[in-house]
Amino acid sequence: MSKKQPVISTSFSYETLEETLDIKLKGEGMTIGIPKEIAFQENRIALTPDAVNVLVNNGHHVMLEHNAGEASHFRDKDYADAGAKIVYSREEVFKARYS
To answer: For residue 89, is it within any domain?
Structure first.
């Protein structure tokens, strides 16, 4: 009777597996305001439309100042489609409540 030897290969790689957790929200969720960056030559924005979509789908509210993502090549429509509320003044972004 012949005994089979295990095959050992060094040409494999490990792959990470994504895990999602179901988290139950308590209450209404947070209101997150994203103002337009006003610093000289600053092109970044705090959240991408994909990140906004994740937050909105988890029960949070996102308010974005008009054209806040423009320097990062994100349009207001991208954010609105992701569930953000577009507001037209900086003061509205910093309001305490989502209406």
So the answer is: yes
Whether the model clears a pTM of 0.85, i.e. scores above it, the answer is no
Number of structural domains in the chain: 1
Q: Is 30 helix (H, G, I), strand (E, B) or coil?
A: coil
Residue 9 covered by a domain? no
**Residue 35: CB partners within 8 Å, gap ≥ 6?**
65, 68, 90, 93, 94
Q: Tell me, yes or no, whether 68 lies in a domain.
A: yes
Provide the percentage of residues in the chain whose pLDDT is more than 70: 77
What CA dihedral angle connects 71, 74, 80 and 85, to 10 degrees? -20
